[in-house]
Design a protein that fits this description.
Elements: H1 2-11, E1 21-22, E2 28-31, E3 34-38, H2 51-64, H3 72-76, H4 79-92, E4 96-100, H5 103-114, E5 120-123, H6 128-137, E6 144-149, H7 161-170, E7 174-178, H8 193-197, E8 204-208, E9 218-222, H9 224-233, H10 235-239, H11 245-260, H12 263-281, E10 292-298, H13 300-312, E11 315-316, E12 319-320, E13 330-335, H14 342-357
Parallel strand pairs: 3-11, 5-6, 6-7, 7-8
Antiparallel strand pairs: 1-2, 2-3, 4-9, 8-9, 10-13, 12-13
Helix pairs in contact: 2-11, 4-11, 6-7, 12-14
């Protein structure tokens, strides 16, 4: 039964496998035994391998051990957790923050705690007019929560946060924004959409530690009341073992580097502009607002073939397929880093255009 369900997926070019990367995922890495230029990492600011970040993790492991020993409300809260929450709240301009084991758990934990029977959750997908209509049509519901990505992870587009807040507030709905791909990327100093637009915070601001901050874990920022509520009502927080101190200390060190070195954000932006310009010079026009540059291919098998051809030329560029994106909307998802060199960007752009033309 399992094989009958899997084989059609495999035949359609929708099966997946894990790649083994030896060493850190910098702009280059040894992948399955071969050195490639990596355009698949969410470590946008190259902080995962920064010596200061690595040392912070090692020092915390020596002081606090590898694991936390329990959930946050029992034995799992250690000084690195508290320091990181305070630093994240300050960085985002919020009153408080709460850590989770992963970004996924932060999303599930916040949403499941805030809504229940009789409530409605709307997930926005770059269509504010539709969100406006649907919020207006569900006023009978006890509570309405509108959720959106800050940066849409498969398209690289930035949410119009001022408009999103205007719509949700006019309909007396809660607003929640996932800044997983915005933190460290969007805004002059990488603080996210609020800095980018110069607007207010949403009611719930979620983010990850596993992308531009180079560690692992997730967080929610908001009012002190929101964080206290989640601390007592969010089941993934209450019943999950706390993330280990080494990861928390690493994230804090990465955040401190980001604050001290905002030029990393500027360099990432320069690299995006260069890569997009190199594609445009060769006849492919794409948007480059963030570190994610998608090149839509359409057919799943063609996207896989293009990815494989790029790998043969020395570039790791993943093919993104259904169910991550809609059927027939497969794409090459180029993830850029501040540490990519101009030569790597130009060479990758030239190779990508040549392969797609063939």
């Amino acid at each position: 039964m399992t094989s009958r369900r899997f084989r059609p997926r495999e035949a359609a070019g929708l099966s997946r496998k894990c790649r083994t990367l030896e060493g850190p995922t910098g702009p280059t890495a040894v992948v399955d035994g071969r050195e490639l230029v990596v355009f698949a990492s969410n470590d946008y600011l190259d902080l995962a391998r920064d010596p200061r970040v690595v040392k912070a993790a090692a020092d915390a492991a020596n002081e606090f051990g590898a694991g936390s020993g329990g959930a946050r409300l029992t034995t799992g809260t250690q000084p690195p957790h508290v320091r990181l929450e305070n630093a994240l709240a300050k960085f985002k301009g919020a009153e408080a923050a709460l850590l989770y084991g992963t970004g996924y758990m932060a999303n599930v934990g916040a949403i499941s705690a805030l809504v229940g029977k009789g409530d409605v959750v709307l997930s926005d997908e770059l269509n504010m007019e539709d969100l406006d209509r649907k919020l207006g049509a569900c006023r009978e519901h006890r509570r309405r929560l509108a959720v959106s990505d800050g940066v849409f992870s498969m398209d690289g587009d930035i949410l119009d946060l001022p408009r999103f807040l205007e719509v949700t507030r006019r309909h007396d709905a809660f607003s929640m924004v996932d800044e997983a791909h915005a933190t460290g990327v969007v805004g002059r100093t990488g603080r996210g959409l609020v800095e980018h637009f110069g607007c207010d915070l949403p009611d719930v601001l979620m983010g990850t530690l596993s992308k531009a901050l180079g560690s692992e874990g997730g967080f929610v920022c908001g009012s002190k009341l929101l964080v206290e509520y989640l601390r007592n009502m969010s089941r993934p927080f209450i019943f999950s073992t706390a993330p280990g101190a080494p990861a928390m200390a690493a994230a804090l060190a990465a955040l401190e580097v980001l604050v001290a070195e905002p030029e990393r954000v500027a360099k990432l932006r320069e690299n995006v502009a260069l890569f997009v310009a190199e594609l445009a010079r060769r006849g492919i026009s794409v948007r480059g607002e963030t570190a994610i540059v998608p090149i839509v291919v359409g057919d799943e098998k063609k996207a896989l073939a293009a990815s494989a051809a790029l790998e043969e030329l020395g570039f790791l560029v993943p093919a993104i397929r259904y169910p991550t994106v809609a059927r027939g909307a497969a794409r090459l998802r180029v993830a850029l880093m501040s540490a990519h060199t101009p030569e790597q960007l130009r060479s990758a752009a030239a190779s990508l255009v040549d392969i797609l033309r063939k």
